[in-house]
């Protein structure tokens, strides 16, 4: 008997059951795949680093000319060092050519060869054991940006030397493989490297990477910091793993979407159960009247939803494996993944079983009401037939509201619980759209440039090769000459502008017993007061510095303290005047006054030459001038603000944008399904009311508009609520990714037309279109249904 009742119920409520099935399947797909991916990526990095032989502590030097004696002595003498190795490299500027044009690298290029310190892998995850003379391996990102494929030929020029190389494929580099690392390593044979290093004109474009094995990386880091050696980068494995954070963040974002899908599924499940119970009060009453206990009646519903949950979870399980592999395939372009892939089949199965358990448990809670219903209550549809309070807050006599809006608002206000599921679902959807949209807009905005210790400008002229020219004794005066010449060239072209540039150092900073090695920066041609500070005042003269909150916390410094900074062989005292935030080197930072006299021989790099036009042109004119500057300055890569931010952070914005597009598609599908479900249930429940409206002269079109208008009003309210909640939720979610990169606080860029008009209108159009289609059966409801009103 129970099986017969179950089959009949599943056939009778096909639409509701199918929609619930789809929700559970979607939730299972997302949560199983994203959980598996998150675990796979987190564990894969350690496995990848072990296979690659990445050191526990790595130091990168520049302009050393083989004179890293102080560092080498430290590594040989320290008891914390178990073993260490050294590999040399050449810094690439505009040395690569293809078809007579410069092949632009989007970040700093390292030219190196295979060595015993690190194992590199090809696109098939096979270790590279040998490279033939005349061939070159490039990172996949470099190949994609330049449009290179295997077999293409590129030319390397340095001074009078010119060598051709055939692209042999792409390489996976554990240390420099992340787009956030800001550098790319290109590999050639040992023989070709020795020829280039010996016969080429590299001037200051040399460097080395020291890979250190230790049993106590934090202690070694502290000992190294006390040394005060001016390296480009000095980091342990955990910091290298942090540069791959965006892959983890994307997986975590999909996991958050999965959690929201579970929540929506439970809301829909509660609505479905409540609606089913109200519709079947009489059947429940009859079963109770003939002696069937409440436990067995509840069992009917539990078995039904268990069957739906099992079917949905099974479908989600099989869909989660290829869906997760799609994401891992992109991640696997940068790292070597374990053979188990997205966390293994057992993990996916466990997630799906957990979803079934949650659905059935929630169903059990929702059906508790059956136990409190008496046969009389059930036969009377759970109502006493009397109402002791006024229904609704609107009065038609008190205003001139049109009839249809009055009916729609009246229904919502007087029976809000019926529309609560709609409001919750739509609100979650709006929040899930707004947060990634604002995140993508923020990452793609030039306004983010201040988080990299820079002042926002109109254009950015970037050339690593030119920057290296200033990292010599007397280099700052050369930089000033370069900036004046750039201003003069622009003025002659009718584009008067102010130009400035930032130079990067790495110095040891200490306060008492605490010390650390920190990223340091000084502007030339720009006043320190133009930068953004969280607290305090800008360093106004020599002997004053500003610190990021990360660096200040590392040494326990506060505004007003005097810290010691080792510059070359001399330790100087500086007054801390301000605290600021930065995403350079995951939050490290020392800002010197522009009046501080620093030897640029100790610098290791710099940011782009910045151009701020004095006539404040619009975006279109800036874009046109950027094209003109490409002709005037062929050695430089020209960026507008958003482009330079993208250069600084890699393809982070692109990854988040892909997630955003997926979320928008999922939310549109969810809203369509929920609107379809609700409309079907409303038509079933309100046949009597619709019949009565027809009997007093309402046309089908007006009744359809009334039904659809209710959905539209709830969606409009959800948009307002979602917009209000998106700010705090973004600070609790997306802002954490910025904090991992060093920012202490982020103000998201909100484009009102896009966030509050374009996407809500898109959601509204899809939702109302589906609602209207679902309401078409109104035409088949007869005025005779009025007899069914109780």
Task: Please characterize this protein's 3D structure.
The protein contains 25 helices and 23 strands. α2 crosses α10 (294-331), α8 packs parallel to α21 and α15 packs across α23 (700-732). The mean pLDDT is 83. The strands form 2 sheets. Strands 1, 2, 3, 4, 5, 6, 7, 8, 9, 10, 11 and 12 form a 12-stranded mixed sheet that branches. It has a 6-stranded mixed barrel with strand order 14-15-20-17-19-18.
Low-pLDDT runs of 5+ residues are none
Alpha-beta content class: alpha+beta
Distance between the termini: 31 Å
Helix content: 40-55%
Cα Rg: 33 Å
User: How big a fraction of the residues is strand?
Assistant: 15-25%
**Total number of helices:** 25
Give the beta-strand count.
23
Largest sheet: 12 strands, mixed
In a few lines, what is going on in this structure?
The chain is an alpha+beta fold and 790 residues long.
Q: What descriptive keywords fit this protein?
A:
alpha+beta; six-stranded mixed β-barrel; 790 residues; elongated; 51% helix; twelve-stranded mixed β-sheet; 25 helices
List the topology elements:
Layout: H1 2-12, H2 14-52, E1 57-62, H3 69-77, E2 81-92, E3 96-98, E4 101-102, E5 108-113, E6 121-122, E7 135-138, H4 140-146, E8 153-158, E9 161-172, E10 183-188, H5 190-199, E11 206-214, H6 217-227, E12 233-236, H7 237-242, H8 245-279, H9 281-289, H10 294-331, H11 345-366, H12 369-372, H13 375-379, H14 403-414, H15 416-443, E13 459-462, H16 464-469, H17 475-492, E14 497-511, E15 514-524, E16 535-536, E17 544-548, H18 549-555, E18 562-567, E19 570-580, E20 590-592, E21 605-606, E22 609-613, H19 619-632, E23 637-640, H20 641-649, H21 652-685, H22 687-695, H23 700-732, H24 734-740, H25 752-774
Parallel strand pairs: 5-10, 7-9, 15-20, 17-19
Antiparallel strand pairs: 1-11, 1-12, 2-5, 2-11, 3-4, 3-8, 6-9, 7-10, 8-9, 13-22, 13-23, 14-15, 14-18, 14-21, 14-22, 16-19, 17-20, 18-19
Helix pairs in contact: 1-10, 2-8, 2-10, 2-11, 2-21, 8-11, 8-15, 8-21, 10-11, 14-15, 14-23, 15-21, 15-23, 21-25, 23-25
């Amino acid at each position: 008997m129970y099986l017969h009742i179950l089959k009949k119920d599943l056939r009778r409520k096909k639409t509701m059951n199918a929609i619930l099935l789809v929700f559970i399947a979607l939730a299972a797909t997302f949560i199983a795949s994203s959980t598996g991916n998150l675990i796979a990526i987190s564990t894969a990095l350690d496995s990848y680093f072990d296979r690659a032989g990445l050191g526990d502590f790595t130091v990168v030097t520049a302009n050393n000319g083989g004179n890293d004696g102080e560092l080498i002595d430290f590594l040989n003498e320290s008891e914390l060092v178990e073993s260490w190795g050294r590999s040399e490299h050449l810094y690439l500027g505009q040395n690569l050519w293809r078809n007579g044009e410069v092949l632009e690298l989007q970040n700093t290029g390292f030219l190196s060869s295979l060595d015993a310190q690190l194992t590199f892998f090809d696109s098939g995850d096979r270790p590279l054991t040998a490279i033939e003379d005349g061939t070159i391996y490039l990172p996949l990102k470099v190949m994609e940006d330049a449009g290179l494929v295997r077999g293409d030929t590129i030319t390397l020029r340095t001074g009078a030397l010119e060598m051709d190389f055939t692209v042999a494929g792409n390489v996976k580099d554990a240390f420099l493989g992340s787009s956030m690392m800001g550098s790319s390593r290109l590999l050639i044979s040992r023989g070709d490297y020795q020829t280039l290093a010996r016969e080429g004109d590299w001037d200051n474009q040399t460097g080395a990477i020291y890979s250190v094995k230790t049993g106590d990386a934090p202690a070694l880091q502290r000992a190294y910091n006390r040394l005060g050696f001016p390296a480009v980068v000095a980091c342990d494995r955990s910091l290298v793993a942090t540069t791959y954070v965006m892959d983890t963040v994307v997986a975590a974002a999909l996991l958050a979407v999965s959690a929201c899908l579970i929540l929506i599924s439970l809301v829909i499940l509660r609505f479905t159960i409540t609606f089913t119970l109200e519709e079947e009060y009489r059947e429940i009453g009859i079963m109770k009247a003939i002696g069937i206990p409440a436990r067995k009646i509840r069992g009917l519903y539990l078995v039904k939803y268990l069957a739906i949950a099992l079917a949905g979870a099974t479908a989600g399980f099989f869909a989660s494996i290829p869906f997760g592999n799609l994401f891992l395939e992109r991640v696997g372009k940068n790292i070597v993944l374990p053979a188990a892939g997205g966390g293994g089949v057992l993990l996916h199965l466990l997630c799906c079983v957990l979803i079934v358990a949650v659905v059935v448990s929630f169903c059990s809670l929702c059906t508790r009401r059956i136990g409190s219903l008496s046969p009389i209550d059930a036969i009377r549809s759970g109502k006493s037939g009397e109402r002791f309070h006024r229904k609704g807050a609107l009065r038609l006599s008190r205003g001139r509201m049109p009839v249809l809006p009055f009916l729609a608002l009246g229904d919502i206000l007087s029976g809000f619980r019926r529309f609560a599921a709609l409001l919750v679902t739509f609100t979650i959807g709006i929040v899930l759209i707004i947060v990634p949209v604002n995140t993508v807009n923020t990452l793609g905005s030039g306004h983010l440039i201040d988080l990299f210790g820079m002042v926002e400008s109109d254009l950015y002229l970037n050339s690593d090769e030119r920057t290296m020219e200033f990292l010599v004794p007397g280099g700052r005066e050369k930089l000033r000459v370069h900036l004046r010449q750039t201003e003069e060239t622009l003025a002659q072209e009718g584009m008067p502008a102010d130009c400035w540039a930032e130079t990067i150092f790495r110095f040891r900073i200490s306060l008492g017993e605490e010390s650390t090695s920190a990223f340091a920066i000084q502007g030339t041609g720009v006043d320190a007061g133009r930068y953004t500070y969280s607290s305090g005042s800008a360093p106004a003269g020599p002997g004053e510095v500003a610190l990021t909150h990360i660096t200040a916390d590392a040494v326990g410094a506060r505004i007003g303290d005097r810290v010691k900074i080792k510059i070359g062989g001399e330790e100087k005292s500086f007054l801390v005047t301000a605290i600021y935030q930065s995403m350079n080197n995951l939050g490290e930072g020392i800002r010197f006054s522009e009046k501080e006299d620093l030897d640029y021989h100790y610098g290791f790099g710099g940011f782009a030459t910045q151009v701020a036009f004095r006539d404040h042109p619009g975006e279109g004119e800036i874009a046109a001038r950027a094209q003109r500057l490409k002709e005037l300055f062929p050695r430089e890569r020209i960026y507008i603000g958003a482009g330079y931010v993208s250069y600084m952070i890699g393809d982070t914005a692109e990854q988040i944008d892909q997630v955003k597009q997926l979320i928008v598609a999922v939310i549109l599908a969810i809203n369509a399904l929920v609107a379809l479900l609700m409309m079907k249930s409303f038509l079933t429940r309100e046949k009597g009311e619709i019949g009565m409206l027809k009997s007093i002269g309402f046309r089908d079109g007006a009744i359809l508009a009334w039904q659809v208008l209710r959905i539209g009003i709830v969606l409009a309210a959800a948009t307002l609520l979602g917009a209000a909640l998106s700010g705090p939720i973004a600070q609790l979610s997306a802002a954490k990714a910025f904090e991992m990169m060093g920012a202490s606080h982020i103000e998201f860029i909100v484009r009102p037309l896009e966030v509050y008009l374009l996407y809500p209108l898109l959601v509204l159009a899809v939702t109302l279109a589906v609602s209207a289609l679902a309401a078409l059966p109104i035409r088949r409801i007869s005025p005779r249904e009025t007899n069914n009103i109780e």
